[in-house]
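User: Before I run my own analysis I want an independent prediction to cross-check against. Here's the chain; please return only the structure tokens and, at the end, one sentence I can use as a sanity check.
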Amino acid sequence: MSRDRNYSLSEQTLVAQTTGPKPALSLVDAVAIIVGIVIGAGIFETPALVAANAGSAEAAILAWLVGGIMSLVGALCYAELGTAYPHAGGNYHYLMRAFGKNLAFLFAWARLSVVQTGSIVILAFVFGDYASQLFSFGDYSSSIYAALAVVILTGLNIISVPQGKWTQNWLTAAKVLGLVMVVVFGLLYASPAAPTVPVEASSKGSLGLAMVFVLLSYGGWNEAAFISAELRNVRRNMKRSLFWSIGIITAIYLSINLAFLHGLGVAGMAASKAVAADLMRRAVGEPGAIFISLLIAVSTLGALNATIFTGARTNYAFGQDFSLFSFLGRWRNRSQTPTNALMVQALLSLLLVLLGTVTRKGFETMVDYTAPVFWFFFLMTGVSLFILRVREPEVPRPFQVPLYPLTPILFCLICGYLLYSSLAYTGIGAFVGVAVVALGVPLLLLQCRQA
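Assistant: Structure tokens:
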């Protein structure tokens, strides 16, 4: 099968079919999805780790600002790819055009079995942890909440796209409002922390480790690529949605870290096990700690809903192009949703919830499981921008990444650094994730025989 034939199938996914994704999402919807994905559990857990490794308040704030700039660098690359090649498959489609079906197959398999399902379960476990502080079901309370969240939110997205997107819009609005309240209480009502000696970094690599945690918290803006086929006026709204989202996220992250530093100080943040709860407890007492537990539950629920929404779109494109997974490529026109893709995604996520329950380290296990695979394919997507510029110069590019080729080179270097860090700092779970991706090779060979 020739390369042209290989990706002409993908071209037909949205162009030659009479049914499929329709432009149903506005700019506001897209911004809500991106902000909802990025501002999840990370901002409530990583500030203490960043403060501990940065060593001073100034370095910590600088790290969060640099993280926003790094994310913008990546967004510039994605804005070019997303406007030149709007497609429900996002990264999958770019990799197919640049490298052919083999790598695209492995990416889609990795996203189905590791990256997206693992990300869903990470958020589900964090939701379960904080929901359990409000009402506990016992020893397995976190896992019960995690499973219920996956099932209920998948059901909402199966009902219809409007149901899914309005759920996301309200959850994101509640989350941002709650974060603003934390900032206000932290800056206006928490008494300033006593001056302390700056925390000394343990090694020269500590600032680099701080950036690992920062970029983990910024992760998720790239999910915009997977809604490009359903975004109205995509050539204009794709770049606008990325710029607005990253601007909002950076402003929120800087503000909330300033509030943490004001109320707790860098040493207090570094020593805290629950930095947001400690700040609210200092500002308004124990009711503040209860409030923050509810806020984090809502926050992760919003990110979880958005991740379920976008993850099924890649699975849909996967089924469109590969007969072995054709059952994933069916679109339910009545509700405008990829029902089968959503259901399979939920089933795999529930299996990972079970895995996390068995290990009793659900969150940590899933982080290890997903990180190296995610950053490898992120790096390859950056490389695809160079290949497609050379191979398909005739394709209209309404937005071209500025300072080419320096900007995409910088993006690839950032991805390479995070790939290295994810292997250097994670445990055995990282190699389990890589092994699961390797299982896609025999499936690829079987697909080639069927072709």
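Sanity check: Residues 24-394+401-450 form a domain with the Amino acid/polyamine transporter I fold (CATH 1.20.1740.10).
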